[in-house]
Amino acid sequence: MIQRGFIILLSYLLAGAALASAVTVNVSSPANNYNGSSPLHVAATANSDQKITGWVVYVDGQIAYQSSSTSIDTQINVAQGTHQLVTRAWDGLGRWGDVWETITISGNNNNGLPTPPSWAKVFNNVHRDGSWGSCHDPGCAGGSGKGTYWMAQNQGSPSMSGRSTELFNSGVWANALWWHTLGANSSQRNFLVDYYLYVDNASQHAAQSFEQEAYQFVSGYNYMMGTQCDVGTGVWDTWDMGAGHWYGTSVPCHNFSPNTWHHIQWYITTDTNAKKYTYHVLVVDGQSYTLNITRNARKMGWSDNVGIQWQLDVNATGAGFHEWIDKGTLTIW
Fold first, then answer.
1. Most buried of 41, 63, 100, 229 (most Cβ within 10 A)?
2. Domains of the chain, CATH where assigned
3. Mean pLDDT, rounded, of the chain
4. Which residues in 219-304 belong to E strands, given as ranges?
5. To which H or E segment does residue 321 belong?
6. Distance between CA 190 and CA 75 in Å, rounded?
7. pLDDT tens, 200-255?
8. How many CA atoms lie within 13 A of 242 on its CB side?
9. H or E element at residue 2
10. Tens digits of per-residue pLDDT, 162-208?
């Protein structure tokens, strides 16, 4: 009985080893015993006789990132200290392989935001570019469609650069949207949004939300990376294009104090294999929040494009309010 039990156990272990070793994982970043700053760049490929169907990256046994793509190249926020990093991939038969590493995070770079590579494409001062589209009807921007709205570029005051863009909207439960397309950039997966906003006194009682999006259309799918300070609920929201719904986060945002500039930064990535996108980091006036929230793209059939947009939403008062945008930058790579 002992011999038979040993044989059964040995067979089980050998089968498990074969199952795991069927997938070979190659991690190009980070190197083992990495010592550096966060966010951590994790890039890996895997080999199998079947298609690679999934990835999970664990930090100290907890899931830090997951994807259904064939390879991964992402940024992960990791706390300071020494950690165990496990990068694991699965194939279509459920077989897996992984790489175990030790990493040390000695600091945090740019409040958790990645440093774009030298070859990244930078759209500077997008708020004052030409060719903006706009709408406020319910079918386009949502809301009631009431009231008036407008945009005025190249404003000298208030301004940080000398050429801010002024937005205005009014009307009971009215929404106004302004967007600017930047052309097909279909291979980029990293989006760093950076801008300053300034609001007037009227916004303190008239604003329902302050909305901003970056978007990417690839192969007919819409990756609408929507964000908003939802004054009504008091938190930052993220948009799920697949569900067509806003979801609140734990990050507070009750309003923006008037007559002063506020610095907003978002780091978001798209995964065109999995048809998903992930909100990684939000920085508000230097305060960093790690989110790592993944949402779903939606098949729309639109041609490839990238762009940026802002929207003002008014509450039940219907009173008009202003927002100014300056130093608007979109960096993609």
1. 229
2. 22-107 (2.60.40.10), 121-332 (2.60.120.260)
3. 91
4. 220-230, 235-240, 245-252, 262-271, 276-284, 287-296, 298-302
5. strand 321-332
6. 9
7. 999 999 999 999 999 999 999 999 999 999 999 999 999 999 999 999 999 999 99
8. 8
9. helix 2-21
10. 999 999 999 999 999 999 999 999 999 999 999 999 999 999 999 99
Single-letter code of the amino acid located at 126: V
Phi, psi (5° rounding) for residue 30? Answer: -85, 165
pLDDT above 90 coverage of the chain, percent: 80
Mean pLDDT throughout 9-37?
Answer: 72
pLDDT confidence bin for 128, thresholds 50/70/90: very high
Neighbours of 187 (CB within 10 A): 10
Give the single-character DSSP code of 127: G
**Separation of first and last alpha carbons in the chain:** 61
DSSP H or E run through 140? helix 138-141
Q: Scanning the structure block, which residue is given the tokens 């993609």?
A: 332
**Tokens 């994807």 appear where?**
67
Within 10 angstroms of residue 54's Cβ, the number of other Cβ atoms is 18
Cα within 13 Å of Cα(79), Cβ side? 6
Identity of the residue numbered 210: F
Joined tokens for residue 161: 């650069």
CB contact at 8 A, 297 and 277: yes
Any bridge partners for residue 133, and if so which?
179
Supply 154's token pair: 């190249």
How many Cβ atoms sit within 10 Å of the Cβ of residue 314? 29
Mean pLDDT along residues 312-326: 98
In angstroms, how far is CA 273 from the centroid of its own chain? Answer: 16
pTM of the model: 0.72
